[in-house]
Amino acid sequence: MKVARMISRGALLLPLLGGCGDDGDAPPNMLPTASASGTDTGNGAGSTDTGTPDDTGTTEGGGGPSFPTTYRFDCVDIIDVGDSDGDGVADGNSIQATLLENTWASDIDNFKLNIMLTVRERDDAAGTATIAIGSGIGTGLDDQCVEPSTASMAYQASYDPDAAQWQPGGDGCAEPAAGAGFGGTYTFELGASDTIYIYAQDDDGTTFNCVPGGAAPNAVPLHAISATVTVDANDQISAGELSGCLLESEAQGLCSCLGECMGGSNPGCEGCPDGSTPLSTLLGGVMPTDNCTTIMGATAFDLRVGFTTRRLPVDEPAVCGG
């Protein structure tokens, strides 16, 4: 994210998805505010190193890529989240976004937030693919397992081997591809009834998101996800853009920690880790958007992020505890 782009729809996710770094005098588990002199945003969006793993993923004899193949998000750039000015249109102008994006980047770099995209099957001639999305638990690229509540069903996607829509970019994770040379592109669009859960936890296993009473997974629920993902010619790295919707009612029912889960219990978060605060409280300055409200048929927030991924050394991580 560029410094001028202050918030994005992803800001919404950030408190949900991961912990937040310290901001001087800001109290524990409260969103910090920027001073008049501005905020140091650092690199902003996680590692953009595009080196490739040793495993090329080709079948014996060079017969092409093998499947399943799983990619982990290693850079996320918040573009839009909710509405900051009351016009109902998603924008990137809320001050918390930049601060939250840096936190998300830290959680990704420290393997506290592991969003994974698996391509289970692909038919280049037919232009089709089957994909799944989940959240991993692990300390590195080679020990990830899928958190059970986030293991998604398989979804259909299209694939164009000759269309390069995105490529890794140095100032925002993904940028429009400069020509057709980077690779092929997956496109998928899920419905309002399809839910993808994004899970994150601290090093000691403490969940950063919690639903009091256990009525739903301790993870951020996203609906109506759509994405375009361009993979390189060796199927090792990818870049893309993803959008989705978060219901206001689910933000009200989800309790989140910023940084460590520490401090006292907050009303509405009984049974959750100490310091958990209702997500709707953390998002106080972010308003719903017309687009996702129409899609969901209920008050909701838009989210849009750019991202890059790196292929894992295993084909498809097993479900944790399975």
Number of helices: 5
Distance between the termini: 38 Å
Described by the principal axes of the CA atoms, the overall outline is globular
How is the main sheet built?
Answer: 8 strands, antiparallel, barrel
Backbone CA Rg: 19 Å
Helix content: 10-25%
Strand order of the largest sheet: 1-2-3-5-8-11-12-15
Poorly predicted runs: 1-16, 20-27, 32-63
Number of strands: 15
The helix-strand sequence is HEHEEEEEEEEEEEHEEHHE
Keywords:
322 residues, mainly beta, eight-stranded antiparallel barrel, three-stranded antiparallel β-sheet, globular
Q: Your description of this structure?
A:
With 322 residues, the chain is mostly beta strands. 12% of the residues lie in helices and 30% in strands. The longest helix is centred in the first third of the chain and has 14 residues. A hairpin with a 7-residue loop joins strand 3 and strand 4. It is globular, with a radius of gyration of 19 Å. The strands form three sheets. It has an eight-stranded antiparallel β-barrel with strand order 1-2-3-5-8-11-12-15. Strands 10-13-14 form a three-stranded antiparallel beta sheet. Strands 6-7 form a two-stranded antiparallel ribbon. It has one domain.
